[in-house]
Task: inverse folding
């Protein structure tokens, strides 16, 4: 009997020598399964807990539990954003929606001598490179372009409700909207962009024939030519979309084609081109014009551009506290439902004016200050807020917040539902009055 362990040991050594590859393969496979099984420890058991270990509170069945209301949002910061927006549309619920652009241009090269004798502008083209849109782009957009009437600064802060003065009108008209179509111009194939012909005389006077001192540096030039104010036509109902532009693109510029005596004497007589550019040194500002006195009793909604937000209030947090006596919260999911009623769908025209792809949830503190939930810092995969197209919902994991609220760490002052990227998109989302809070717990 004493020789049995040795025999087993010899057998195992022999198997190892003859089947190293197989043994190693199963060994690493075992380690891999072990790691997978140990991952996502916070979620273990959550998907297999019985319904008796869940509490589901719904505004439909517990009308006194939640209160939803729609409130006007404050202005949002809109200088030097990644996307600039231009256009307007008339929303049946949110009313008139407009977006303007104030934009500074700089010299593509410093001018040390004049543009020549008897200089005339042949054409002046404003290029605005597309990066997206919101609304119905099958309709033309009506635009007005003005000479900006005041200084704007790259190092200053500007907000969506800023009003800029203007002087000369450089363009007023209607343009086709083709955000996905390449442009063929001057013998080249260019990325999709909007092309607008500006007033020749203005640029003859303020660029081609201006005093050379105004062109000796960019600082001098932006004092002389402050930039453009680009606006949709005054009546929002004329337009049906808001266009998104990348004003840091190399194709964001003003092309000035001109001739002078020297060119006219040449046999081909071709124009010369000079460019004014917008770049990282250029001030770029969105300003928005929205309805401010809507009757929000009849609908619940969130609107970007400093429009409207949703407020959720827990009417009686003591009820939740009593339901959780002797229980430990494992997970708490708060779910908001997009309004799917026939009326809402016809108003929203979902294919043209889709809801937000993602929204955020913040807590309200003293003096109406807002703060990120601690759950937010766990990341999007944990926190949520992304639109679920299958069941038309937005869900948030508020497990930490709910525990802190019940413990008295935070006052019960409610939560705000806010759009993400409010300065760079024009989405709006209508919500149903339904709100669910699902709590998964463990008895203690």
Result:
């Amino acid at each position: 009997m004493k020789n049995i362990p040795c025999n087993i040991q010899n057998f195992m050594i022999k198997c190892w020598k003859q089947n190293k590859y197989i043994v190693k393969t199963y060994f690493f496979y075992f380690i891999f399964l072990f790691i997978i099984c140990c991952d996502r420890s916070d979620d273990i058991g959550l998907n297999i807990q019985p319904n008796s270990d869940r509490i589901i509170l719904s505004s439909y069945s517990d009308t006194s539990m939640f209160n939803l209301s729609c409130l006007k949002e404050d202005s949002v910061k809109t200088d030097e954003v990644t996307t600039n927006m231009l256009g307007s549309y008339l929303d049946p619920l949110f009313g008139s929606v407009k977006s303007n652009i104030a934009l500074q241009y700089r010299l593509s090269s410093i001018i040390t001598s004049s543009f020549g004798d008897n200089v005339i502008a042949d054409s002046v083209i404003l290029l605005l490179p597309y990066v997206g849109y919101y609304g119905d782009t099958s309709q033309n957009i009506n635009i007005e372009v003005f000479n900006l009437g005041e200084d704007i600064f790259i190092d200053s802060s500007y907000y969506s409700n800023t009003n800029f003065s203007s002087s000369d009108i450089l363009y007023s008209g209607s343009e086709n909207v083709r955000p996905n179509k390449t442009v063929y111009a001057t013998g080249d194939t260019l990325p999709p962009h909007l092309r607008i012909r500006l007033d020749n005389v203005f640029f003859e006077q303020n660029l081609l024939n201006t005093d050379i001192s105004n062109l000796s540096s960019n600082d001098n030039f932006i004092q002389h030519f402050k930039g453009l104010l680009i606006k949709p036509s005054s009546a929002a109902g004329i337009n049906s979309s808001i266009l998104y532009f990348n004003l840091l693109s190399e194709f964001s510029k003003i092309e000035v084609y001109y001739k002078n005596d020297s060119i006219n004497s040449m046999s081909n007589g071709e124009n010369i081109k000079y460019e004014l550019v917008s770049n990282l040194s250029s001030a770029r500002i969105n300003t928005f014009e929205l309805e401010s006195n809507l009757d929000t009793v009849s609908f619940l909604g969130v609107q970007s551009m400093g429009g409207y937000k949703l407020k959720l209030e827990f009417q009686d947090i003591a009820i939740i506290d009593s339901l959780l006596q002797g229980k430990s919260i494992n997970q708490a999911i708060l779910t908001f439902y997009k309004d799917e009623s026939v009326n809402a769908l016809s108003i929203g025209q979902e294919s043209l004016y889709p809801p937000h792809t993602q929204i955020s949830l913040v807590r309200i503190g003293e003096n109406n200050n807002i703060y990120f939930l601690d759950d937010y810092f766990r990341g999007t995969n944990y926190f949520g807020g992304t639109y679920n197209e299958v069941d038309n919902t937005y869900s948030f994991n508020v497990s930490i917040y709910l525990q802190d609220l019940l413990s008295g760490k935070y006052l019960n002052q409610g939560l705000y539902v806010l759009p993400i990227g409010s300065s760079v998109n024009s989405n709006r989302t209508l919500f149903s009055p339904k709100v669910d809070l699902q709590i998964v717990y463990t008895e203690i």
